[in-house]
Structure to design on (283 residues):
């Protein structure tokens, strides 16, 4: 198989994972009143796996296999460490424990959790890049820019938890239990500070490495390629809104943060491509 065909195949596989997620988590719930489409087996585990596989394959195309493997490894190590310390001490997110809903655990933390972090961390990385530089990849040279970009990525990720935590720690799922409760649909405010710190650490460590070793994309990172990450981010929001168990206020607040961030990234991407086209010399 030629390099070009292999690159296209990788992108096609990435799109297939995203399409499967959108089908089961977004489109199928919309048709339930009239058409009962067959669900994919596995529930939360399958949906998390599909979007994680999208992030890995899309990241392999945009960043290269070595970079996306490094990104996922940093994410897994940092997220698991913060979660393990968090469950054991309550010092990071507040006092909580995981139930058995999410499956097998390593220590106190389900193995699915680092995957769940990455499935949103990677699209958020692309969104932060698009907002600031209009490109899918960007780890600038100065320390101040690197910190600012990592902080923006942390905000983009944490906006998602405004909706997912009230759902998964709520009475319908009880994937984890807040031992002391909290003012935001039972979630402590400390949890969101913990999310910001955790995701900022992931982004900063990876971006420091990316600044030294530039990504090697598998193919041209066009607007159509970059926008897939924005679609994935919006699809996660829509799937949560359509869950049927999201508190109204949480849905409104998460939408008020997530949707403008996604739209801003899409607009910046569109303008960036037009600017690049205008700068290109005529042939």
């Amino acid at each position: 198989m030629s390099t070009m065909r292999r690159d296209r195949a990788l992108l096609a596989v990435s799109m297939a994972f995203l399409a499967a997620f959108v089908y089961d988590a977004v489109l199928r719930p919309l048709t339930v009143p009239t058409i009962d489409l067959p669900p994919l087996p596995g529930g939360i585990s399958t949906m998390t796996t599909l979007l994680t596989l999208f992030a890995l394959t899309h990241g392999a195309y945009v960043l290269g296999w070595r970079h996306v493997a490094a990104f996922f490894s940093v994410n897994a190590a940092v997220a698991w460490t913060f979660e393990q310390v968090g469950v054991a001490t309550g010092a990071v997110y507040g006092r909580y424990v995981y139930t058995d809903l999410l499956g097998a655990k390593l220590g106190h933390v389900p193995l699915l959790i680092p995957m769940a972090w990455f499935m949103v961390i990677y699209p958020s990385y692309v969104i932060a890049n698009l907002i600031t530089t209009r490109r899918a990849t960007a780890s600038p040279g100065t320390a101040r820019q690197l910190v600012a970009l990592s902080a923006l990525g942390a905000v983009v990720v944490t906006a998602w938890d405004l909706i997912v935590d009230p759902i998964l720690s709520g009475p319908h799922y009880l994937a984890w239990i807040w031992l002391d409760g909290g003012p935001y649909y039972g979630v402590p405010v400390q949890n969101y500070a913990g999310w910001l710190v955790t995701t900022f650490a992931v982004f900063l460590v990876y971006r420091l490495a990316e600044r030294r070793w530039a990504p090697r994309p598998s193919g041209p990172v066009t607007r159509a390629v970059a926008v897939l990450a924005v679609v994935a981010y919006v699809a996660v929001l829509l799937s949560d809104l359509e869950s049927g168990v999201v508190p109204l206020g949480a849905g409104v607040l998460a939408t008020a943060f997530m949707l403008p961030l996604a739209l801003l990234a899409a607009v910046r991407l569109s303008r960036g491509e037009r600017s690049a086209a205008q700068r290109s010399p005529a042939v």
About this structure: The longest helix spans residues 248-279.
